[in-house]
């Protein structure tokens, strides 16, 4: 018998306690067992260096709504939403130094504990092979037939994606990632590498034909600054691919705001906030892709002139708040 829910989609709303208990019995795992694994990682969130967020990274507004007071790991993490544009973000948020340590030593063990299986620089590669096949097919019409020579993969992990794209399209690949263990595997694939965050990256004036940022934008500390930097790193006829975890889709899938928030993601994007970010940074969206997992949304873009005032509509912002309150208070549909 199957209840039709994966480990990642257990409902947290108290009104769904019976359904959750049935799933736990079938799957042989409980929330308490998961929490014990997470505690064994011994990550002390309360001891981390954090910074308060006083203004929205997208629109600059200072009016926030507190959506949740903990994340999926049960850490005391607050997610706020901007009343002006609907951007969701952690507040306070860990500092850049704290995140460097987190990604180097904590991130993979913590995710492994949450899912109850080993997820590290070796095991993650199988999933990345499937991912890159889909993304390469998506990119191909915008790459083939052009004299492209260079690729930059931001947050490229072990280099599976960068290496596959570079090989398929005949490119020299450069990869940056904050995790040394994953950088080492990328280096063995013959990629140029940089250990660190995009905020630290300085290519010395080099520009790239293709830039990809796969399943990474949610991890950035300053999306606005990073996208503007990427725009400056690209040739004027280049191609940029980026994908998001759609926060609205995550909330509706999990039927929980808390389950959709995690300390490893400083930001939680929707289609409307990501489209505003791209337009403001100077990217024109030429293709939008709803991924096969129904959770990620990908964008193929080309450099354009920035449109500084681009923002989600007031109706889109209100719809987000309405959906959050529905998920928080209505029984989960069965």
Please give the structural blueprint.
Blueprint: H1 17-27, H2 31-41, E1 50-51, E2 64-68, E3 79-82, E4 88-90, E5 93-94, H3 96-115, H4 124-143, E6 150-154, H5 160-169, E7 172-177, H6 180-188, E8 192-195, E9 208-213, H7 223-233, E10 234-245, H8 247-254, E11 267-268, H9 271-281, E12 283-290, E13 296-303, H10 314-329
Parallel strand pairs: 6-7, 6-9, 7-8, 9-10
Antiparallel strand pairs: 1-5, 2-3, 3-4, 4-11, 10-13, 12-13
Helix pairs in contact: 2-3, 4-5, 7-9
The separation of the N and C termini measures 16 Å
Count of helical regions: 10
Strand line-up in the sheet with most strands: 8-7-6-9-10-13-12
CATH topology heading of the largest domain: Rossmann fold
Order of helices and strands: HHEEEEEHHEHEHEEHEHEHEEH
Low-confidence stretches: 1-27
CATH class of the largest domain: Alpha Beta
Mean pLDDT: 90
Overall tally of domains: 2
What is the general shape? globular
Class by SSE composition:
alpha/beta
Assign the CATH superfamily of the largest domain: Vaccinia Virus protein VP39
């Amino acid at each position: 018998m199957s209840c039709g829910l994966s480990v990642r989609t257990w409902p947290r709303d108290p009104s769904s306690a019976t359904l959750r208990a049935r799933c736990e019995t079938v799957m042989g795992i409980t929330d308490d067992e998961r929490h014990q694994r997470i505690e064994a990682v011994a990550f002390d969130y309360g001891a981390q260096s954090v910074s308060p967020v006083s203004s929205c990274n997208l629109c600059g507004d200072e009016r926030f709504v507190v959506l949740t007071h903990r994340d999926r790991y049960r850490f005391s993490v607050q997610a706020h939403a901007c009343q002006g544009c609907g951007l969701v973000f952690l507040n306070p948020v860990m500092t850049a130094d704290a995140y460097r340590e987190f990604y180097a030593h904590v991130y993979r063990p913590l995710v492994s504990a949450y899912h109850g299986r080993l997820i590290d620089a070796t095991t993650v590669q199988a999933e990345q092979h499937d991912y890159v096949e889909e993304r390469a097919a998506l990119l191909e019409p915008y790459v083939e037939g052009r004299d492209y020579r260079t690729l930059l993969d931001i947050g490229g992990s072990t280099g599976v994606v960068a290496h596959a794209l570079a090989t398929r399209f005949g490119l020299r690949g450069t990869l940056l990632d904050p995790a040394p263990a994953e950088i080492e595997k990328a280096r063995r694939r013959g990629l140029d590498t940089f250990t660190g965050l995009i905020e630290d990256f300085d290519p010395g004036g080099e520009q790239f034909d293709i830039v990809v940022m796969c399943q990474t934008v949610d991890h950035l500390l300053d999306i606005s600054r990073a996208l503007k930097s990427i725009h400056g790193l690209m040739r004027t006829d280049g191609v940029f691919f980026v994908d998001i975890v759609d926060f609205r889709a995550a909330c509706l899938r999990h039927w929980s705001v808390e389950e959709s928030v995690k300390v490893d993601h400083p930001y939680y994007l929707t289609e409307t906030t990501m489209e505003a970010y791209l337009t403001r940074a100077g990217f024109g969206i030429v293709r939008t892709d709803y991924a096969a997992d129904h959770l990620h949304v990908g964008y193929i873009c080309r450099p354009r002139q920035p449109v500084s005032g681009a923002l989600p509509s007031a109706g889109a912002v209100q719809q987000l708040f309405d959906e959050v309150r529905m998920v928080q208070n209505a029984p989960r549909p069965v």
